[in-house]
Each structure stands twice: as C-alpha cells, then as structure tokens.
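$ ./design --mode recover --in tokens.txt
reading tokens...
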C-alpha cells in the first residue's frame, strides 16, 4: 500500500506579481489575493510511520497526543479560558520554554464558514511569520520593556493545530513541508492587509524539491505543533510552510473539516 498521495497544491509560481492578501473581518467574506498563484501536483507522504523521528528543530513540525477538556470549540469564552491554558502547557512541555504567551486562535470549517463568522481552510502554501513580523508581533503583545528584554534572547512562534470534530478528519487535511527541504528563495514576503493593520507572512514559491507530509485521519486527541518562526540562527529550522489540500482518498460524502489553530510565542532563558 502506498504511503503517499498526489494532490494539487497552490504555490506562487514566481514573483512577477507582488503577493498581497486582503483579509476582511470575520464573517464578511473570503480573503482576496494578488500574486501569480498556480497549482502544482506534489507527492504528500503519510508522516505517521515516521512520527517519532520528527523534530521541531529539523522538520519544524511534530505530532503529539494532547487531550483537551474543551467541550465546545465554538464557544469563544471556553476556548480563551480553558484551551489557551492547555496550549500553553503543551508548548512548555514540548519545547522547554520558560514563558509561553498564547495570543490568538482561529476556528476553521469547510461548512458554511463565512455565514457562521468563521474562516475556511487555507489552500495556499504559507508561513505565518517572517523575519520582520515575528519580532514585531512580540512588541505588539508585550509591554515595551519586557518585549525588548525577551527579544534579546531566543524566542519562537508555534501554531498548535487540531481537529475539533468527534470523528477523524476526512477532508482538506493539513499538509506540511519538511523544513530541511526549504531553500531561502522559497519564502516570499506577502503583505496581509486587515481593516486596522497590515501584517506580513511568507508565501511559498514553488520548489519541486519540497518534501511534503501529512497525518491522515487525525483525531480530536492529537495536535500538530508547527514552528513558524525561530530567532535562533544556529542551523535549526527557523520557518516552515504548510497548506490545506484536497486528499484524493477522501470518501465520497466526507464530513466537513473542523479545526482550530492556536498561535503562541515561546520565550527561552
């Protein structure tokens, strides 16, 4: 049995058009993107057989068992009070960070997302933070004195991704690029324009050498940690690329994907 699938993945084909994404307020519409995007068929490997060998410092992603006591991930208050604390503890456990600040989360669904005030799965290859926007976000979140003190030592940004449905993920799973297969030219700066501010992410430029992985049929007690930024310049993975994709083995009438990703900064002494 093949341990991989082939599927179209949306990349930037080149930088002939500067990539910009306009993100409307939740529930008001879909993001609008500028850039020369194209689908490229990529081979995406089942990472479950090698899950124990994956490392945040090499591949920039891992799969871990993570129980949650959250009953309703659509309840904003419950997520902020209960789930953020669970994510903080998980990241401390997996990274050894001395302080973790969970600052954001996004619930995504493939089912009537916009009318429910939610977001849809992102189908383009991207990394959530850049060389510039990583430190800038720390300054946005922490008091000025503490921010400068923290920026003087190693810090990293992690996303924690999980399914919030009670049945295994059947459609639009998350695909992840092994960071050891990334070249610097694969990361293109893209402005993200919101109603109240402009941020910056990396969009992935197509590279046939990218090694893609995914974890089929993820369950509610599993979580993927993705490192999207690391200030350390000592040879470890600093950035990563990921995207939702259409799995060709998805059954005929799949249950819509429901997921949450929480974002956090980890600070190290």
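writing sequence...
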């Amino acid at each position: 049995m093949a341990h991989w699938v082939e599927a179209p993945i949306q990349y930037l084909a080149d930088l002939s058009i500067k990539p910009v994404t306009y993100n409307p307020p939740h529930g008001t519409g879909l993001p609008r993107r500028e850039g020369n995007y194209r689908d490229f068929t990529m081979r995406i490997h089942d990472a479950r057989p090698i899950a124990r060998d994956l490392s945040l410092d090499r591949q920039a992603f891992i799969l871990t068992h993570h129980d949650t006591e959250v009953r309703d991930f659509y309840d904003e208050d419950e997520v902020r009070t209960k789930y953020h604390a669970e994510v903080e503890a998980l990241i401390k456990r997996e990274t050894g960070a001395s302080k973790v600040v969970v600052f954001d989360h996004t619930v995504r669904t493939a089912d009537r997302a916009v009318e429910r005030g939610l977001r849809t799965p992102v189908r383009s290859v991207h990394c959530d933070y850049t060389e510039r926007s990583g430190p800038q976000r720390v300054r946005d979140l922490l008091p000025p004195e503490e921010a400068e003190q923290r920026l003087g030592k190693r810090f990293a940004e992690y996303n924690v991704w999980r399914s919030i449905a009670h049945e295994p993920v059947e459609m639009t799973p998350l695909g992840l690029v092994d960071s050891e297969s990334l070249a610097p030219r694969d990361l293109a700066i893209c402005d993200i324009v919101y109603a109240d501010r402009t941020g910056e992410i990396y969009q992935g430029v197509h590279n046939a050498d990218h090694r893609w992985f995914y974890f089929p049929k993820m369950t509610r007690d599993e979580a993927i940690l993705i490192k999207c930024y690391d200030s350390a310049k000592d040879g470890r993975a600093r950035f990563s690329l990921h995207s939702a994709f259409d799995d060709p083995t998805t059954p005929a009438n799949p249950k819509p994907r429901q997921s949450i990703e929480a974002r956090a900064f980890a600070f190290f002494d």
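exit 0
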